[in-house]
Design a protein that fits this description.
CATH superfamily of the largest domain: Glycogen Phosphorylase B
CATH architecture of the largest domain: 3-Layer(aba) Sandwich
Number of domains: 2
Keywords: Glycosyltransferase, Transferase
Radius of gyration: 21 Å
Pfam families: Glyco_trans_4_4, Glycos_transf_1
Largest sheet: 7 strands, parallel
Enzyme class: transferase
Distance between the termini: 35 Å
Protein name: D-inositol-3-phosphate glycosyltransferase
Shape: globular
InterPro entries: Glyco_trans_1, Glyco_trans_4-like_N
Helix content: 40-55%
Order of helices and strands: EHEHEHEHEHEHEHHEHEHEHEHEEHHH
Number of strands: 13
């Protein structure tokens, strides 16, 4: 089976790692794999070197950019269509909002069935109204051209069905897979990795470290964590905060933290390679995630597999792994007092942290193994190619644009 994967950018991110694990797993299983992506730009880092070293074909499409640019988008769609006509694959598998729309349109024009993975909703309340309406309309237009959808969380299926994009029977939930072993048992041992990491980061043995892994951008919600830290400044002096990642808000966050007198409570790692994340989580005591929009944030199962309890905003698929009283504490989005209370409770109770983390490890290790994900995706892909999982309809015609 020849599968062409299409994703907007190959930056350091959950959807991109998911896609690479899928490509690598299918390639290792004997499938022919071609990965097509746009250029990676900005401070998010890149997975392009890893992709090029994996042994399958990688094609960079310079016309494919993240922001809405109708003429460039049309050119990207036509370029991808020409590529498909030449490659003659059995299946197209699209990822992310922009590539998802353009890729399914091109696949329909080329007569190739398409699967689309919903890593996170392409339309959401935090977009400007024009972009939100455009993406929602585009998803409805692309829905009939999609043989089957993969959702990383049940919440994604619920949102897309409610928006009228496709009926529920054309969705299958497959958890976003990862290499779980470094989170379970690092080669050097958890205790040694924890001690070394805390020493390097400057944390004392008595500190309780709350780690947040996310790009430093507005929707990731680091500002709510800073507000909670300020509220807990006197109540929980042992709480320290590890911000893993980089982005445009770093300087502003550092100024805000300094103004609150919390500079000694926060450590910024900057951009780190994904293979360092397990060691950083082992050096921590809990994971906090205050994003306002996600599919199912990978750092939540990663933290749980590492045996750490999680505190998360109740956004999208977070509630499917952050189970209050069982694996962590789920709090309403933007509710800083509830966030502070959850952090203070866990900081004060090491036995509770141990119990919640152990239950999360027991529940979620196997469902989030990358081998589990690849096995499920390969079975679904074979069904779609054989016509057993729905047939895409429509021509893939792209709305005409002036000057094209």
């Amino acid at each position: 089976m020849h599968v062409v994967h299409f994703i907007t950018r190959l930056i350091l991110g959950g959807a991109q790692e998911n896609t690479l694990f899928t490509c690598e797993g299918q390639h290792a299983a004997g499938d022919r794999v071609t990965l097509v992506t746009g250029p990676g730009l900005g401070r998010e880092g890149s997975l392009m070197d890893r992709a090029r070293e994996a042994g399958f074909e990688v094609v960079e499409l310079p016309e494919l950019v993240r922001n809405l640019r109708p003429r460039a988008d049309y050119r990207a769609m036509r370029a991808f269509e020409r590529l498909l006509v030449g490659l003659k694959p059995d299946l197209v598998h699209t990822h992310s909002g922009k590539a998802g729309i353009l890729g399914r349109a091109a696949a329909a024009k080329a007569g190739v069935p398409a699967i689309h993975t919903v890593h996170g909703p392409s339309f959401h309340p935090f977009q400007n109204p024009v972009s939100r309406a455009a993406f929602r309309a585009a998803e409805r237009w692309a829905g009939p051209k999609t043989a089957h959808f993969i959702s990383v969380a049940d919440a994604m299926t619920d949102q897309y069905v409610a928006a009228g994009i496709a009926p529920r029977e054309r969705f299958t939930t497959i958890r976003s897979g990862m290499l779980v072993e470094p989170f379970l048992d690092p080669p050097a041992g958890r205790a040694a990795v924890r001690e070394r990491g805390r020493e390097e980061l400057g944390f004392a043995p008595t500190d309780v470290v709350a780690a947040k892994v996310a790009r430093l951008s507005d929707l990731k919600g680091q500002r709510f964590l800073v507000d909670a830290a300020e509220a807990l400044k006197d109540r929980s002096p042992q709480l320290k905060y590890l911000l893993i990642g980089d982005g445009p808000l770093r300087e502003g966050l550092e100024r805000r933290i300094a103004a609150a007198g919390l500079t000694d409570r926060f450590v910024f790692t900057g951009l780190v390679p994904s293979e360092r994340i397990p060691d950083l989580l082992h050096a921590s005591d809990l994971v906090v995630h205050t994003s306002l929009r996600e599919g199912l944030p990978r750092v939540l199962p990663q933290g749980l597999i590492a045996g750490k309890p999680v505190v998360a905003f109740d956004a999208d698929g977070a509630r499917e792994v952050c189970l209050t009283g069982q694996t962590g504490v789920l709090v309403p989005p933007k509710d800083v007092p509830a966030l502070a209370e959850a952090l203070a409770t866990l900081a004060a109770d090491p036995a509770l942290r141990e119990r919640l983390g152990a239950e999360g490890r027991r529940r979620f290790t196997d469902p989030f193994r990358h081998t589990t994900m690849v096995r499920q995706i390969r079975a679904l892909s074979a069904d779609v190619v054989a016509g057993k999982r729905g047939t895409a309809v429509g021509t893939g015609d792209f709305p005409p644009l002036p000057g094209n």
